[in-house]
Amino acid sequence: MELNARLTYLLERLASHTATAEELDELIALVDRDAPGASIDDAESWLEVHGGQPLPANSPKQWRQVADQILRSDKLPADPIAPPATRVHYLHKWWWAVAAVVLMAGGVWYFNRNNPHPVRQMVRNASLDVAPGQTGAILTLADGSQLVLDSAGNGVITRQNGATVALRNGDLQYTPEQTVTGALQYNTITTARGRQFTITLPDGTKVWLNASSSLRFPVAFNGADRTVEFTGEAYFEVAANARQPFRVNVPDRINLEVLGTVFNINAYTNDRNSYTTLVNGAVKISPAGKTSGTVVLKPGEQLQATGSSFDVMGNTNVEKAIAWKNGLFNFDSVGLKDMMRQLERWYDLEVVYEGNVPNIMFFGEMSRKLKLSDVLNGLERSDVHFRLEEGRKLIVMP
Q1: What is this structure's pTM?
Q2: What string of H, E and C letters represents the secondary structure of 150-193?
Q3: Which of the four, 61, 105, 140, 299, has the lowest number of CB atoms within 10 Å?
Q4: Radius of gyration of the chain from Cα atoms?
Q5: Mind listing the pLDDT tens digit for each residue in 3-62?
Q6: Domain that holds residue 376
Q7: Are residues 245 and 258 in contact, defined by beta-carbon separation less than 8 angstroms?
């Protein structure tokens, strides 16, 4: 939809630091009405395209006033659905878009809607700041030797069991060159904290691995099925082959079977629950080591597995489940400790809680490209505070 002409003009005035107080009030009123061509999403999209340009310097005082006005336009429900002991904090898309503009004004300034003063900056020593995760993994071959993929260049990195293994722009690709009989050889690709990677398996199935994940797979799929073993979180696009079912075994959790489909598995060993979200196609899932209790998911459904107990949820927010693959943290209906586990993996942190940290439910999303300091300063609007120490130890405080 075409952007409202008046909204475009006001956003240009905001980005160039020339907006008057009246124009800022008008801008807030426009996005508050959420009208076609002048919605929060429209404003955010414009800022994503045009907000990255160098902006003239301006005084922190002026931008504190600008941001405070915009933040007051955030709308909270009168009666949020949450337990009495749970506070609700909204990571509004509009706030993050404006924060990006404010950030470029010459200093790191973050704001609380109820407090016109800047929130204290948690990472005062730049050497303690933590960069976001990046592409990287370790490939363990059948003979136990390991290849670090972080620094490997494009091209063939090895040949084994009749397959060529090549790296092409961050995607590890297995291409069978000949049919090999005999015992299967297995490789394992592992991502550490702060790393993610993509691999194309010998059958053409593509897998995106999130941080702290591991995929064990045969170098060639020569048997009656295609079976891999997995822990962590990954997004699978399975190549269709009715004669060779594709199976994913998550040790002590679930066994999953598909023919050709797209799904996301979240099954970290240190999380109590695992989640399988179906994007399209169909998957059949059973508890690990059992043949009973099998369920079949339809697109848009999510399976929550706790031990051998299965709970299927319909009309699932699929975009939330796969946000990580698209470069986002999606924190809709996410508690503080669940959020911290995601940050712990992506920024390679040790998270420690100090004192009586409030039970807060977050709503919204953030880019996974932000530095840790940007994330923490933004989260301090929720009245949870942080201290980053040497050794990547993050202290969470009330």
Answers
A1: 0.74
A2: CCCCCEEEEEECCEEEEEECCEEEEEECCCCCCCCCEEEEEECC
A3: 61
A4: 24
A5: 678 888 877 777 666 767 677 667 767 766 666 777 666 766 676 566 544 444 444 444
A6: 332-397
A7: yes
